[in-house]
Amino acid sequence: MIILGIETSCDETALCLIETRNSSNDLLEYRILSNIIYSQIETHREYGGVFPMLAKREHIKNLPILYEKVLKEACIDENKINKISVTQGPGLEPALWTGILFAKELGNRLGVPIIPTNHMEGHIISALLSESKKKEEFQILSPIKFPALAILISGGHTEIVKIMKLGEYNILGSTVDDAIGEAFDKVARMLGLPYPGGPEISRLAEIAREKNIKNEIKLPRPMLHSKDLNFSFSGLKTAVLYTLRKIENINENQRCDIAREFENAVTDVLISKTKMAIEENEINTLIIGGGVTANKYIRKAFERLASENSITIYMPIIKLSGDNALMIALLGAIKPSTNVEGFRAEGNMSL
Q1: In sequence order, what DSSP letters do the residues of 89-148 get, joined into one string?
Q2: What's the domain range around 216?
Q3: What is the pTM of this model?
């Protein structure tokens, strides 16, 4: 079966073509025929974040171009496509609609079913992908021993999710205000760093550690000792703002110190809440998904936590930690091939 995945939830226009087959032991095998991601970062950089209507315009322009590219790279005719999988939400609704309308138009023309998918469920799937093999080689998703715990950390989400099986989710905790990726971007802007802020904060934090810059800045760890599994990053962001107001002429060492302390604070809260979730639930597998998993310091902290608790951990490879259509295509492969009509973009879609 040939499946086309379409992802337009935010500022990446992404298309992917995969071929699937059932193995002798009934496992789904897949191979990547073409996987293209077009980032709009440079387009949105001057705004310091994603401008929804601009993202919509760029998606509309890029979708037909990338579609021709994936077909050419995969060396197939579009009539060989058996199913189309598209992101329904969550995300920016103007951006989501571009992918949905493109999928519906294409699906009607080709006479193939269209499968709406959840973007955050896609990030769970991304963590189960192995390093890309040669295009002609089939591979399988990493096996999950249930129940599993997913920590979803991205620009728009911070969630702890218990997974009984793929498709059966229970949200144990989430952010009550800013998502973790959003907090990174806002603090980066305070420090005069370019968008996207996450990689810039991490870069300065790493400099602080390598140079052993004295840790003079102290920031709070919001909700660290609360008895629930929810998060709050708005107060941490405000603490950075008040800290900066006390510094008349900030120097590079101070900027690096703040970046390190902010990254440390975020990581401490993430690990503490995850540890609590592991202790309160019978967990066999830990899954970390979402764009913030590209942060090397946070990745190492989760790896230590999993090792200390003798739990298998899965995280996406760096290049697939962000938004991509491969995860959407694979969700389409897992879900039934029944055509879903009349579905709409859902910006606040939940698992």
Answers
A1: ESS-HHHHHHHHHHHHHHHHHHT--EEEEEHHHHHHHHTT--S---TT--B-PPP--SSE
A2: 148-315
A3: 0.94
